[in-house]
Amino acid sequence: MYTILLILYLKENMKAIYKFHAEVGRMGDLEGIFVASQANLASLIDSEHEVYFGECLGKHSEITFPVINEYFTLVTDNSDFIKMFEDFGMESGINPLSIYEESLSEGCYK
Q: Phi and psi of 57, rounded to 5°?
């Protein structure tokens, strides 16, 4: 029993590379590729909080919406590739998880 729980815990907290893509109407799309744990990403999606992306698509764009599971694609959970990805700083674009975590630390959500 404890072995199964440990395996589930480790799997949930394993890092993976995710691709983010959200269409925001005529203004354009938000895209990014980043490393995150499944647990952290699930916590963002389950929170249903609206994430404020600011004016990332130009002046007066003011983009805010709750992120949903369909915006994310698992690229890989291969630990060797993830280490290389992180070592070479290959994250790119928008990472809604880091935006959300920064907002949490600033007390924007309760």
A: -110, 25
Domain positions in the chain = 2-105
Contact between 13 and 38 (Cβ < 8 Å) = yes
Q: Which residues share a beta bridge with 92? A: 33
Q: What global pTM score does this model have? A: 0.83
Phi-psi region of 93 (alpha: psi -120 to 50; beta: other; left: phi over 0): left
Are 76 and 16 in contact, with CB atoms under 8 Å apart? yes
pLDDT at 17: 97
Closest CA to 19 of 96, 78, 80: 96
Instruction: Note the pLDDT tens digit of each residue in 43-100.
Output: 999 988 899 898 888 888 889 999 999 999 999 999 999 999 999 999 999 999 999 8
For residue 93, give every residue at least 6 positions away whose Cβ sits within 8 Å of its Cβ, in sequence order, or none: 20, 30, 31, 32, 33, 34
Measured distance CA(73)–CA(20) in Å, rounded: 7
